[in-house]
Amino acid sequence: MPIKSTPLKSKQRAIPASLMRGGTSKGLYFAKEDLPLNIDQRDRVLLAAMGSPDIRQIDGVGGAHPLTSKVAIISKSDRADADIDYLFLQIVVDKAEVLTTQNCGNILAGVGPWAIENGLIPIAGDITTVRIHMVNSNALAVAYVPTKAGGVEYEGTTHIDGVPGQAAAIPIDFLNIAGSLCGALLPTGQAKTKIDGVEATCIDNGMPVILLRAEDFNLTGQEAPATLEANNRLKQDIETLRLQLGEQMNLGDVSTKTVPKMILISKPKAGGTIATRSFIPHRVHDAIGVLAAVSVATACMLPDSIAQPIAQMPPQKEDKTEQRLEIEHPTGSFLVDMDIQFENGKIDIKRAALLRTARTIMRGDVYIPATIWPK
Ligand code: NQM
């Protein structure tokens, strides 16, 4: 006999939520009004929903990895230039910490579909445009969500590396993301910074990242994430540089922050622009973050960065302003369209655009013990 869905007579607290894949990440998406207003209480609720702190997140829906322990909180925006506000929260797997410093461009990919499916944005033809205010970095993104047959269309023919199969493309444009958290595109004031005898490029075009040459650490740059994660000496050296450069990037003490990300760069091996291995900042990404890829692509175009001599730049497109850069990562590559103009020594970033896919996996209530947020 089929099991009928009946209201749960539970003493737990039920909170409406969707479990979604956004790009190569996964997490819970909430309406702001469904969570406590008080931030400490909100964070306790999110930790319980995900099952943190616990390396297996066994008592919650978190996937025991930073890329699957993420939350989006969404509401209507009061801004004239945005339809919705999106706050990203990283739920630390093994610590009782909820971090809001960084933004996440992968979870962002699910925000437009969620806003449409939950009635915040009306469908507007075959493609519904959603203007998103990214609260963490106070920057704007525009997502073009396929909505052909009166609902969000998830099936399609776009493959993104790091996700099996194909899905409907969600093109995303980023508008004013330079200096998103550091206040400047080149927060150390230069495209190349020397520290402890190593040259680095510190850049923030949507995500603060520090680029380092893989060869400076006696690596090829093609190592598997697990090999890099097992190299304790390397992780220590990279963290020492991160703590020092984090201060220089106007991020203060970054010992408990997830930014800046540390990215080892090397010559491309698969016909792309540059090869990467990203520490985010302690686990190694199986692919690369969206805004991290935009920051790397930007560095490849900057004279004097350590990335430019390594990058194999693609030919310019016909309109002569935009270039498509292919950022290689452990499970494939990531395409970023960049339009950067240089005038009188000034860098003018006109546009960064890319494609993601997303999918609603489950929708309903996530349950937490009532003692955490009494009814
Ligand atoms: O850089 C992982 C991810 C991210 C962040 C991380 C991201 C971005 O892959 O915009 O998407 O760097 O922590 O989801």
Task: Explain how this protein is built.
- Helix content is 15%, strand content 33%.
- With 375 residues, the chain is of the alpha+beta class.
- It has a 17-stranded mixed sheet that branches.
- Residues 24-25, 66-67, 104-106, 207, 258, 261, 280, 289-292 line the site of (1E)-4-oxobut-1-ene-1,2,4-tricarboxylic acid (NQM).
Keywords for this entry:
single chain, 375 residues, alpha+beta, 17-stranded mixed sheet, 17 strands, binds (1E)-4-oxobut-1-ene-1,2,4-tricarboxylic acid
- Report the β-strand fraction as a percent range: 25-35%
Low-confidence spans: none
Q: What hetero molecules are in the model?
A: (1E)-4-oxobut-1-ene-1,2,4-tricarboxylic acid
First and last CA, distance:
34 Å
Coarse morphology: globular
Strand and helix order: EEHEEEHHEEEEEEHHEEHEEEE
Total helical elements = 6
Count of DSSP E strands?
17
**Percent helix:** 10-25%
Which structural category do the helix and sheet elements fall into?
alpha+beta
Radius of gyration, Cα only, in angstroms?
21 Å
Estimate the mean pLDDT confidence. Answer: 95
Major sheet, described briefly?
17 strands, mixed
